[in-house]
Amino acid sequence: MLGTAATLTETTTYPGLAELPHFNPDDDRDPLHPAVAELRAAVKEADAVLICTPEYAGGLPGSFKNLLDWTVGGGEIYGKPVAWINASSVAAPTGGRDAHDSLRKVLTYAGAKIVEEACARIPVSRAVVADGRVTDPDLRGRIAVAVKRLREGV
């Protein structure tokens, strides 16, 4: 997630995916589970959201879809600029396309503002990732362009 307007270059990574309970519309009411409240607060505070998720079994991983489900009911993502870059390997058959199609569907339903110019397919092989960071300068540059376009869409 991108930071506030005063610090647009500041980014925050959401670390709470594993703590989110399974989505149940009956539980989407106050008092919210603390992990859900934290997620919604982070989305609300961010000026924009950049998503990077792998494709799994032809779509979004279930745990990530669960996260998205929790963002719908609170409305924090409504009107929020969003974009995505892929995390698929170079050899992935669809390059993350099916996950991106699923993202588009869910985010459109939730009323997010998709910044098309910032959505990018940038295949990354495991060989250029160390300690969770892309090390290849060309790929880092392409990712930086996507982030810049998302900032411009805010």
From TrEMBL:
It comes from the Bacteria. Its EC number is 1.-.-.-. InterPro entries: Flavoprotein-like_sf (IPR029039), FMN_Rdtase-like_dom (IPR005025), NAD(P)H-dep_reductase (IPR050712). Residues 15-117 form the NADPH-dependent FMN reductase-like domain. It is an enzyme of class 1 (oxidoreductase). Keywords: Oxidoreductase. Signal peptide: none annotated. Transmembrane segments: none annotated. One of its GO terms (molecular function) is oxidoreductase activity. This is NAD(P)H-dependent oxidoreductase.
